[in-house]
Write a structure and sequence with these properties.
This protein is α+β, with helices and mostly antiparallel strands. The chain is 26% helix and 25% strand.
Length: 768
Amino acid sequence: MSSPPKTPPGDRRRGLAAVRAIGLRLIVWGGLACVVLLYSGNLRWLLEPRSPFAPAEPTSEPEGAAGPAWPSLRGPAYNGISAETGLADSWPTGGPPLVWKRDIGRGYSGLIAVGNRVFTQRQTSTEQSLLCLDAKTGHQVWEHRYGWAYEAGGMHPGPRATPMWQAGRIYFAAPDGLVGCLRADNGVKIWSANVNEQFAGRGTEFGYACSPLVEAGKVILPVGGQQASVVALDALDGSTVWTSGSQPASYCSALPITLGGRRLVVAFLQNVLALLELESGKVVWQQPYSQGYDEHAAMPLYDEPHLMVMLPFKAGADLYRLDGFPQLREGEAPAEPGTTVHLPISTKARQEPRPPRIAQGPRDTAQAVAADAPHGGVTARLLWHSAELSNDTASSVLVGGYVYGFDLLEAQANGHRPSRGKFKCLDFLSGKVRWTADRVGHATILVAEGKLLLFNDRGELILARATPDRYEELGRTQVFRGEICWTAPALHRGRIYLRSPTQAACLDVRQDEPAGQAQPAGAAPTPEPAAGEPFDLVRLIGEEREYPFDPPDLAEFTRWYLWSLAGAFLGAGVIALVAGLACRSLVGRTKRSGARQGTPAFGGRRSAPSTLRATFGAPGPSVPSAVFWSAAFLLGLLTTPLANRLSQGFVFTWPASVFVMHQMVLVAVVGSTRRSGPKLPRWIAPAVVFAFVVACLAYYDLCRRLNLAVAWVFLVGFLPSWPLTVPLAHRIHKHGGFILPALWAVVAFTLFFWASAGCLWARAVAIR
């Protein structure tokens, strides 16, 4: 019995050379396509002048003069409340007058206003900077560039923190942990330091977002390093004054409070709520909040001696009463010394939020919290916990004994559509809900003269009365459209300053606009009219992942993989088989009708019998093969929304469509580069590669808009799959058929899918 013929060494070498040649062409053509597309997308930024604003007219007014300033995030008292008066009680139909509106670059940094100056941080396609604008015109006064662009193609590119003005200086923080101090009059740098690098910061993997707090000559910053949960830098030179704690940080800025005459700092870290002495950094009280990963972004509320914190992930809110002296108040039971209550707060680790439990006073709660540290001196009692108010990016406000805020009814605020939830008013001391409104939306809040100025994520500015009796709206106007807005507003001299991810605007909200004040040239007299609801992209996938930034575990990846196999490849195989049977039936009818042999069938060069042979493995391309790959692509897209309506967990089958696109590109490259046999025109391969790059960028952009950050990883699984996909492309082009290539495709897709998943898991391990 003769042995099967062996492949000559020369053929193997030629096969490897072909694989290398195809890979090189894909990389070169794909790279050129990426360069062209990215360059064209950034062409506006690259060609525009370095300063996109006209220079401001010189002014002799010193910064900080004449009138209340808004020098920091949430204003002079860090609570979102302004002392300004003379604001309008209602607005006309078109809204308050628009003073100016400008493109400002990417970012989520808020605006602060002092004197005739407005400050914020922004990002172009290449760099980050701090801007000083003229408050009256929006024209640029100066710009300080401090770093490269942050996540230029990511989910939320640009700076997150809001700068702070103090004594003629501007303090800022960048997403990579760079902290700096500039002269407010000209933007000249005084000092800078990277706290993430210096103190090995943890807990701000989505970008450092804590705004600097400048108090008593110190810049207070949550960092999250070992022995450096919170750090204090000298405001004059940036040197380290003190460091404290070892808990990971989060995204909530430090809040200064006064308790019993002592100046303290509230730090809401990843797993701990802590009180520290401002002068020394000594921890005087802390409360554990979780053992997993939590994002705390909403600012606490304080009215001595009560401290209220709003939690994310639908976990509700807690109110504590703090005591800074050993002696007890009249009628109050002592806290049990040396104990810390570990409250079962909901975490990102899929725990369920606690049911509402509202206490009427200290006698109705059995839980007491004492200082963890023996050198403490502050005790706290939990007065109530309520599931009625959860905050994320938009902080609540406390005014007149009542809390106004948006109760976020999903795991996280959504960056690409309005967030779901309800705007509420709660009694501060009891936690009882006074009223609920559906019309406001996810809004950041500013309070002045007993009125709420609400800036929601749809880009609308709303005026409402701050009353616990009912929601009473006094005016509404559309300022920005087509963007999700999270930045807190600033109020200064009767003007409100607003920011979207790409634009800034100033509106005059005073009762009577001064006579003779002209609008800047080119500015619209009123804000833009309200736009209709945009198309909800979630319809494309049926539903959203509850925690979109968490890497899928093995069970979720397996669910995606099995649905992809069943929905895309098995379904396409059935459709292709039906197409093959239809071909056989058509061939039979052609023979019976006496058609001349060799007559082209199905619009191709081959005859009907040749097409039938190709269906079951004969050489040459076939109609069922084309049907199989086309159906696999379409079913990969359509299975996702269908499965998300039928399955309990989230399902994502688009990777099957991405794989099919990649395989067809390889077939086109093989067909246009073959030296023998059927060939395609040489221009086909570059054109197909370019179209493939465009499709990948579209997939990337859709994932961004759908908050599917983890789905980007399937764009890196192409190269590991080449040992199977390149030979498969040769077989599809040379031999045709669909049964054997379909089975081969399942194996190749398996390699592609799990190689991509492995890359995501490797990255997650590296971050930990």
